[in-house]
Amino acid sequence: MTPARTLREAHVHLAWHGRALGMLRLGSTRSPRECLDLVAAESRRLDAVGAADWLMGVQMRVESWDEPRWPTREELDHATGNRPAWLMSFDHHSLVANSAALLAAGFREGSPDPDGGVLGRDDRGRLTGLCLESACRRVREAAPEPPLAESRTHVRAALADLASHGFAEVHDLLTQSWLPPMLADLHDAGELPMRISLFPLVEHAAQIARERSTWSRPGLELAGGKVFVDGTLNARTAWMLGPYADPIPDHPCGTALLSADQIAAAILHCRSLGIGLAAHAIGDAAVRACLDAAEGTHDGQSPRLRIEHAELVDERDIPRFASLGVAASVQPCHLLYDIEALTRWLPHRLDRVLPLRDLVQAGLVPGQSLLFGSDTPIVRPNPEDSIIASVHRARVPGSVGGPPCPPIAPEQALNEREAWACFQPT
């Protein structure tokens, strides 16, 4: 069953999606050696054309490799020489950097972990190049940003790619301050092929809201702010109620980035601007903190909270979504890529992975309060990937992510009609 191609993509990163289309893509690699060989070849290519650019690789899936370990800083140095380089996990919350990139970000031997982040260290305490959460962001942001003209090219490429998948509406979940006026220009030039809802970080939302009159257009709106409550499963920084099977030292249950009180403050700040809040929350403890914040600020009518990802939800929290008017904006397609990480790190919680059937039975409505997206460029934005994941709860022959596998929590499956409805604008 395939519906008319008038779909809504509820979680994208427009500029990064377009930019990643031109980066070194490592999603098909099967081992550290294969990955490093591609990196070395790209470094030689850049040398040959005299490019001074950083080398940046994306979509790496360490847990899917034959040898599931990160490349080391020394291995990356050998492949790239003095050129700053980082290789980012497909989750965008973790990367490995070479020595030049670490120095550019201000990290040296003996540097402490930054607030909200982790620096990987070997048995002697030396930096391995692994950077999680805020450490990852700091290294990533040390690379020069492309000029606006190049960013415009990235955005146009992203829009064209999303339109090719049938999307008539997209939600941008990490809107940069320069993006709204750029999209307005594209709209005025007749080059905006879809409706777009914007969700900048909460700390930037007030400024973007004040400037709304200069860029707002029909089909282009500021819908909410965004916060990050935890990290990701592959990085073992998703905030869990119980410990991981093999946790990061000193982080047995992942990493909490915000408390319930801080989330509540963000809800109230966005409410004062007349917009909602989207909260990145992957682990069950992060989801509970969001629901606790929603309960403390619930007024029954303001722009609502939507929880992004909600990849694990405790049984006791299922009915709270509908009763508090909280939407679940989920990406079932991630299941196809996360299976190795889930079975390795959370084998005791697989029954709580993407509890879609429970959420629908508890009152969430597909397409209204249960929304589907991809989080592209984390994974590709093909909607059929989420249909496979939500209906079959597993990789099947021909699907992305790896070889076929047994289903995870098959009792939580939706039927095809329900799954496609989650992509339908209302």
The name of the CATH topology of the largest domain is TIM Barrel
Oligomer: single chain
| Residue-averaged pLDDT | 93
| Class by alpha and beta content | alpha/beta
Largest sheet: 6 strands, mixed
* Poorly predicted parts: none
- CATH structural class of the largest domain: Alpha Beta
Determine Rg (CA atoms, Å): 21 Å
Residue share in helix: 25-40%
Spell out the key features of this protein:
15 strands, TIM Barrel, 6-stranded mixed sheet, Diaminopimelate Epimerase, Chain A, domain 1, 17% strand, 5-stranded parallel sheet, globular, alpha/beta, 426 residues, 2 domains
Describe the fold and architecture.
The protein has 16 helices and 15 strands. It has two domains: 7-16 and 151-421, Alpha-Beta Barrel (TIM Barrel); 20-142, Diaminopimelate Epimerase, Chain A, domain 1, CATH 3.10.310.70. It has helices at 14-20, 32-48, 73-80, 99-104, 134-142, 148-164, 179-188, 202-210, 212-215, 260-272, 284-297, 318-324, 334-345, 356-361, 383-392, 416-421; strands at 7-12, 24-25, 55-60, 85-89, 94-97, 117-121, 127-133, 167-172, 195-198, 220-222, 224-228, 276-281, 305-309, 327-330, 370-372. The model has no long low-confidence stretch (mean pLDDT 93). The strands form three sheets. Strands 2-3-4-5-7-6 form a six-stranded mixed β-sheet. With 426 residues, it is an alpha/beta fold.
Give the arrangement of secondary structure elements:
Blueprint lengths: L6 E6 L1 H7 L3 E2 L6 H17 L6 E6 L12 H8 L4 E5 L4 E4 L1 H6 L12 E5 L5 E7 H9 L5 H17 L2 E6 L6 H10 L6 E4 L3 H9 L1 H4 L4 E3 L1 E5 L31 H13 L3 E6 L2 H14 L7 E5 L8 H7 L2 E4 L3 H12 L10 H6 L8 E3 L10 H10 L23 H6 L5
Parallel strand pairs: 1-8, 2-3, 3-4, 8-9, 9-10, 11-12, 12-13, 13-14, 14-15
Antiparallel strand pairs: 4-5, 5-7, 6-7
Helix pairs in contact: 1-6, 2-3, 10-11
